[in-house]
Task: inverse folding
């Protein structure tokens, strides 16, 4: 397992709740592995440790938009510099041409802020994986191996 030297901040963007299940499952895996992690269902930059490793779990809403609860957080990010590491897990429906647009937006914004991606975003098609938390946890565990 890769050594995580900082705590994890699990940041959630969700409209219908599936991404919240993913975040809870990632948190449970962290607890199992003895990794400190906090979940932020209403992300607020002032409340999130900027030195922690971020795990951004977000769905896509509308025409490739971020969910309402994470949009203000995203907007705050556009004017700051970060030096932390992050992962992105995106949920989407591949029948839309904006598949996982929210996750792609968060990934691009994090890179523009100077943060370091520890892996390419994990994009999960809910049409193929109706229980996305299983796929997300398996992928996340692989990242730590």
Result:
């Amino acid at each position: 397992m890769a050594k995580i030297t900082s705590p994890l901040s699990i940041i959630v963007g969700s409209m219908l709740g599936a991404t919240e299940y993913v975040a809870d499952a990632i948190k449970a895996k962290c607890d199992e592995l003895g990794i400190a992690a906090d979940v932020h269902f209403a992300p607020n930059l002032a409340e999130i440790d900027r030195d922690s490793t971020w795990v951004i779990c977000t769905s896509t809403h509308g025409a490739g938009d971020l969910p309402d609860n994470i949009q203000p957080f995203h907007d705050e990010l556009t004017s700051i510099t970060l030096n932390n590491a992050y992962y992105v897990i995106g949920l989407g429906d591949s029948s839309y041409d904006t598949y996982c647009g929210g996750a792609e937006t968060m990934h691009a914004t994090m890179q523009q802020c100077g943060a370091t991606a520890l892996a390419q975003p994990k994009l999960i098609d809910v049409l193929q994986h109706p229980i996305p938390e299983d796929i997300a946890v398996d992928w996340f565990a692989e990242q730590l191996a």
User: Anything to note?
Assistant: The mean pLDDT is 93. The longest strand covers residues 85-92.
